[in-house]
Amino acid sequence: MKETDAAGEMKKVYGRPQSLRDVQFHFCPGCNHGNVHKLIAEALDEHGIREKTVGIPGVGCCVFLYSYFNIDVIEAPHGRACAVATGMKRVLGDDVVIFTYQGDGDLAAIGLAETVHTANRGENITVFFVNNTVYGMTGGQMAPTTLLGQKTTTSPYGRDFMTDGYPIRMAEMLATLEGAAFVARVACDTPKNLFKAKAAVKKALRMQMDRMGFSFVEILSACPTDWNLTPLEARRRVGGEMIPYFPLGVFKERTTADYL
Fold this sequence. Notes:
Elements lengths: L1 E3 L5 E3 L20 H15 L5 E5 L7 H4 L3 E2 L7 H12 L4 E7 H7 L1 H10 L4 E6 L29 H4 L5 H6 L4 E8 L3 H19 L4 E7 L3 H4 L3 H15 L3 E5 L2 H4 L1
Parallel strand pairs: 3-4, 3-5, 5-6, 6-8, 7-8
Antiparallel strand pairs: 1-2, 7-9
Helix pairs in contact: 1-8, 4-5
């Protein structure tokens, strides 16, 4: 994006972050993965840490991280991103910034144990958790975060708490663990919430850079394809249905005094 300055010359005021490769996104129309990628990439650029950052995506739509980010990326087996991140951080040391990028099936189902114990140990990594309440890549099956009454390919009559249990609130659960330094939940449904999401992403990375411990940002995201909604309807669903059950905010933030 360009604008004209006082001298009548064009100057660039907005563009692609250096931490993103110059390629087109392939995500479905209305999907928020592209938005989240951009927020993380901008944060890496603004912190000046692109050259010393390693991203570790889980399985699912998140796995395409390596196609878009201009950083080192290591793909983890399904659910094991936090375990891989732990190993990488311990080997490479605190001078290297490590983040995982995971969906609700990867992080909250098969990877739940890795996530909880990584947070409990206070591993100095950052986890970005994209919650769209469904298994996006594999056909739209019910996920641990699927809302009550939500129809999916494996809950065609809607999620029933009598047989399927309740949606897991990951942010609230992880905030109870002593090793967690920063835990927040944000959303991608409005410009205002996107600005707040950017601030949380930057804060989570800063907590890791300051060696404060485990940082976690849950990002409420739309999946128009598997929700069988238009992009606009899907965006409205995030605000109208997801946020009331998954409230936004910072659930835990360790201070330097607490840490010392």
